[in-house]
Design a protein that fits this description.
heterodimer; A: alpha+beta; Alpha-Beta Plaits; 3-stranded mixed sheet; 3-stranded antiparallel sheet; 17% strand; B: alpha+beta; 8 strands; globular
Chain lengths: 181, 382
């Protein structure tokens, strides 16, 4: 019968319409600012810099690897120097242009010091198009506790790795046992 | 002046040229068609591409091999996993890298999930082009969301997954990955049944799609079409069956083929392919072994991409992406950057027959012909 297929299709839409009031399967939307979906642990948005205790002790040693590996080249690092002009192992400036960053997470993967990680923060709308989205060192700093809060599994792994590294360093620093008198 | 139609034979008619796009909702992005119409019938059609050109191939020549991986996500932004897959296999083929068993299985699962995502979405948007405004799309989106949630939990991003690495994967899957894929395997056929009930027997859809945009087998082969577009004309050509890349020789599945090569065949081909994909998923999830997710050499390469080098030479590697044959051609001069990097994009080559499909049909049929080709402009223009 002509038109039966259309009626059958209408039946499906009617079923979906009615069931959307009762079934969670068929109404999957949430009322966003009030209601939020649970965050996935591996979700990545923009990078942040991690510090251990004080914001001055950055893990970053400004080795420039992330800046070189970043595919769209959105990271700019300037190394800090002391009064004599000797380069120090910390960044003076660390800028990430969020308008260029494409959230690929390669900086986090290549960092040998576990200093940069991907954040979960996504509500970052700004009025300005250029300078407002260029995040500087102070804006990017976040504590290790925050990292442990948003990504507990990764944080535990990283902390374990860092502790092992510190232990190895301690062993190396101890003077070798004297064998000859 | 008196206006009369007395000698209608002497009435002058002239063709009308219409620009469809580049800003038109039916063109799936920034794509333009210069259409010459006689009345409402198309006599000539010229596709204009290049509005979304982002210099992907040239950018890749100035970047480490891994650096192009996140950019391949942005080619066909609906199926980023298969783009990663194609690029990773190209580099692995050249470097002679081994991929661990577990990684191979996860790759196949991801590729088939991507096929589900792409085909459901395509059918939704094809119906949108037909005028069934947004109801099928929203049903498709609802189901797609469940798969994208898995991608997000595993890879960290819903669409720009960047999940594959040379020699394996970025990270292992999460603990709830297998049960969630099982859930998809169990629930997806039900959704497909419902979707088919809504669409397949619908008289309006049949009247609009059947015998519209017919491509002959000969033309399809000569034009180099691939994927569901080619199979809809009746050519049983599936790279998963022919090349047996990755571990596809271990799974039992059939290759659906069409009869006439019209829009309805192309629509139905996608439904059948999704059912076959579910079969592959079902087998893969049962057999998935434990073990490494990336090989040792691959892990070093992922940690230090600046030192990753390929031997001199060139390679072409292809996979069966949801849209067709996706190939990467790489030429290496032995340094850390590719000397030449070329993408064989399926939607670009499938689009070349658009004029042959449309001539002689009405202007409204041009829209559904374009919809059934399944293009993503990110891939067409690169």
């Amino acid at each position: 019968m002509f038109g039966f297929g259309v009626l059958k299709g209408m039946g499906v839409t009617f079923k979906n319409f009615v069931l959307s009031y009762f079934s969670k399967e068929r109404l999957t939307t949430v009322q966003y600012p009030e209601e939020r979906l649970p965050e996935k642990e591996r979700f990545r948005n923009f990078p942040f810099l991690i510090y251990d205790e004080k914001p001055e002790d950055l893990r970053c040693v400004s080795c420039d690897i992330c800046a070189k590996e970043c595919p769209p080249k959105c990271i700019t690092i300037v190394r800090d120097t002391d009064e004599a002009g000797k380069p120090l192992k910390r960044p003076k400036e660390f800028d990430i242009d969020f308008s260029i960053c494409m959230n690929c997470g390669i900086c986090e993967e290549v960092c040998p010091f576990d200093a940069i990680f991907m954040d979960h923060e996504f509500e970052l709308a700004e009025y300005g198009r250029f300078e407002d989205l260029n995040y500087h060192k102070e804006d990017l700093l976040k504590s290790n506790e925050y990292f442990a809060k948003i990504r507990p599994r990764d944080a535990a792994e990283v902390d374990k790795r860092l502790r092992e590294k510190a232990k190895q360093k301690e062993v190396k620093l101890q003077p070798p046992p004297e064998t000859k008198t | 002046m008196e206006f009369t139609l007395k000698d209608s034979a002497a009435l002058e008619t002239q063709t009308l040229e219409v620009n469809l796009g580049p800003q038109h909702p039916s063109t799936h992005g920034v794509f333009q068609m210069n259409v010459v119409l006689e009345g409402e019938t198309i006599v000539k059609l010229k596709p204009v591409m290049g509005y979304l050109h982002r210099n992907h191939e040239k950018l890749a020549e100035n970047m480490s091999y891994l650096g192009s991986m996140p950019f391949t996500d942005r080619l066909d932004y609906i199926c980023s996993m298969t783009n990663n897959f194609a690029y990773a296999t190209a580099v692995e083929k050249m470097a002679n890298m081994e991929v661990p068993e577990r990684a191979q299985y996860i790759r196949v699962i991801m590729a088939e999930l991507t096929r589900l995502v792409n085909h459901t979405l395509l059918i939704g948007f094809l119906l949108n082009d037909l005028g069934a405004f947004f109801t099928p799309v929203l049903y498709a989106f609802r189901e797609r969301e469940k798969i994208l949630d898995i991608f997000e939990a595993v890879a960290g991003s819903r669409m720009m997954c960047n999940y594959f690495r040379f020699g394996g994967l970025k990270v292992d899957v999460t603990g709830d990955f297998i049960p969630r894929v099982r859930q998809i395997i169990n629930n997806y056929p039900k959704f497909l049944d419902e979707f088919e009930k809504l669409l397949s027997e619908n008289e309006i859809l049949m009247a609009r799609c059947q015998n519209v945009g017919i491509i002959s087998q000969e033309l399809a082969i000569n034009a180099g079409l691939s994927g569901p577009m080619l199979r809809a004309t009746g050519v049983p050509y599936d790279i998963r069956k022919i090349d047996h890349y990755s571990i596809y020789d271990r799974f039992k599945f059939r290759v659906p083929i069409g009869e006439t090569g019209d829009v309805y065949d192309r629509y139905y081909m996608r439904i059948l392919e999704m059912r076959e994909s579910i079969k592959i998923l079902d087998q893969a999830i049962k057999e998935i072994p434990d073990g490494e997710f990336i090989s040792k050499a691959g892990a070093v390469g992922a940690k230090t991409p600046r030192n990753f080098k390929l031997p001199k030479g060139d390679v072409y590697s292809r996979i069966e992406a949801p849209k067709g044959e996706l190939g990467f051609y790489l030429v290496s001069d032995g340094t850390t950057k590719p000397y030449r990097y070329h993408v064989r994009a399926p939607s670009f080559i499938n689009l070349t027959v658009l004029e042959d499909m449309c001539i002689g049909h009405k202007i409204a049929d041009a829209i559904i012909n374009l919809g059934s080709v399944d293009i993503v402009l990110g891939e067409v223009d690169r």
